[in-house]
Amino acid sequence: LISISESLELELFQKKLSKSESSSSQGIGLRVIVEGRPGYSYTRKFTQESIDLMVNDAVSLAGFTDPLDIDMPQPTNITSTDLKKWSSELEKVTMNDMKSFCESIDDYCWQKDERVENINYLGMGKQSSWSAFFNSRACLYPSKSNSISAYVGVVSAEKDQKKSGMYSNGTRSMTDLDPILMANLAVERSLELLGASSFSSSSCPVILSNRVSGSLLGKFLSVFSADQVQKGQSKFAGKLGQQVGSSLINLHSLPHIEKAPGSRFVDSEGIATKDLAIMEEGVLNSFIYNLETSKKAGVEPSGHGSRGLQGKVGIGFANLHMSKGESKLNDLLASSEEVFYITKLEGGSACSSVSGEISIGVQGLLFRHGQIERAVDACTLSTNFFDLLNQIQALSDEYSDSFSSLKIPDILIDGVALSG
User: Fold this and answer.
1) What angle (nearest 5°) sits at the alpha carbon of residue 262, between those of residues 228 and 328?
2) How many helices, marked H, and strands, marked E, lie in the chain?
3) Judging by DSSP bridges, how do beta strands 371-384 and 357-368 pair with one another?
4) SS (H, E, C) 178-246
5) Tell me, what's the pLDDT at 326?
6) Long-range contacts (CB closer than 8 Å, 24 or more residues apart) made by 273-280
7) Which long-range contacts (CB under 8 A, 24 or more apart) does 18-22 make?
8) What's the pLDDT tens digit per position in 151-191?
9) Could you give the CA distance from residue 260 to residue 86 in angstroms, rounded to a whole number?
């Protein structure tokens, strides 16, 4: 693997630069197979001496590893479709352009509401990269991408209470970012939680906002990894073809979505990617595999090999989407007499992908008969991921607008334990 990347970043505080950074990196990551045994090494230098040392290290280390049973890929025809991950216009964006954009966000935040007390972080970053995979069987797959992102965090105050709200997003074109929208959403998210109080211990229907549904479910994606299954660390082991969740769940790996951050034509081992149904109507259809785990399972590799310059090949998703439902969010909020709409997660260290246990701090809004009754904080959500999959009652028809490879709609869950 070869990788060359550049980044440009800045942060503002009170319209003054508090951070500005331009950086670049490059490297080569190598895996060799010597008499069936893998050796790994890498270098950040492109000199002949460094490359020779990297090769010698990889070959030497192969003498200390266990045999790796894989079939190295042959060249394959890659579609000529453009995934639109590169924008030449984006390369023209300067530090001054980014600074002006952030200054506009700053202005709009203060104009939005008099309760805004502070803008505690505000910044922007631009990234570009070129990479290539090749092997000794004449596979050669280059790719390039660039993106730009911005973020803002706002603190609003009322009486003796302060609440923070933030908004961030990324895109392939700076014109897709709107400073007014970013300011409005960050301020609104801080204001909506003012006046919050704790939630008395109970069990009621919960809606995971699409702001947080991906973050929470994303903590448990390793249960779909064949590596975790083969190590006995996934409760989905032995459950292919079985109903493991609500019939509303349709989960697909979609690696060819235009402009999406996870899109790719080949994985990190040179295997062509393809759409893959992980779950359909709650039935577990497939795990995700790299070359090693697919050989152990006696199946075709799924194109989910994942590797950085350093270390062994792992397994990771490209773009993972849970299909939208048919319900409007407002209808979900009015679906029961009382509904807790979760808009913010706190922590997550007590979540275990092996056991499925979830214990996480949450904030949000309590709805009664479809109307906001009050804001809620100091609340803990306690459930189990595998139970949660079966408790899904409805899905909204909308994803968040985040620049993310994981897209999950709003999720209505019945009977979740909450404690204040």
Assistant:
1) 95
2) 8, 19
3) antiparallel
4) CHHHHHHHHHHHHHCCCCCECCCCEEEEEEECCCCHHHHHHCCHHHHEHHHHHCCCCCCCCCCCCECCC
5) 96
6) 273/303, 273/304, 273/318, 274/302, 274/303, 276/252, 276/302, 276/303, 277/250, 277/251, 277/252, 278/224, 278/251, 278/252, 278/253, 278/320, 279/244, 279/245, 279/249, 279/250, 279/251, 280/250, 280/251
7) 19/123, 20/95, 22/95
8) 999 999 999 999 999 999 999 999 999 999 999 999 999 99
9) 11
158 in Cβ contact with 195 (< 8 Å): yes
Residues 6+ apart with CB under 8 A from 115: 156, 157, 158, 191, 194
Instruction: List, for residues 230-270, the tens digit of each pLDDT value.
Output: 999 999 999 999 999 999 999 999 999 999 999 999 999 99
Q: Which amino acid is at 400?
A: S
CA-nearest of 154, 92, 155, 101 to 123 is: 101
Residue 335 has which token pair? 């679906």
CA atoms within 13 A on the CB side of 341: 27
- Whole-number pLDDT of residue 404: 97
Output DSSP code: residue 90.
G
- Amino acid at position 40, single letter: Y
The residue with tokens 């402009």 is: 259
Contacts of residue 175, defined as CB under 8 A and 6 or more positions apart, other chains included, come to: none
Convert the pLDDT of each residue in 96-137 to its tens digit. 999 999 999 999 999 999 999 999 999 999 999 999 999 999
Q: Give pLDDT, residue 262.
A: 95
Distance, CA of 304 to CA of 413 (rounded, Å): 30
Give the whole-angstrom CA distance, residue 277 versus residue 240.
12
The two tokens of residue 291 are 């070359």
pLDDT confidence of residue 302: 97
Which residues does 1 contact at the CB level (< 8 Å), separation at least 6? 28, 29, 30, 131, 132, 133, 268, 307, 308, 309
Q: What element of type H or E holds 105?
A: helix 95-112
What is the spatial distance between Cα 267 and Cα 290, in angstroms, rounded to a whole number? Answer: 9
DSSP symbol at 174: G
How many Cβ atoms sit within 10 Å of the Cβ of residue 288? Answer: 27
Beta bridge partners of 283: 243, 280
What is the C-alpha to C-alpha distance for residues 328 and 159, in angstroms, rounded to an integer? Answer: 35
Residue 201 in this model has a pLDDT that exceeds 80? no
What local confidence, expressed as pLDDT, does residue 117 receive?
Answer: 97
Residue 347 has pLDDT above 90, yes or no: no
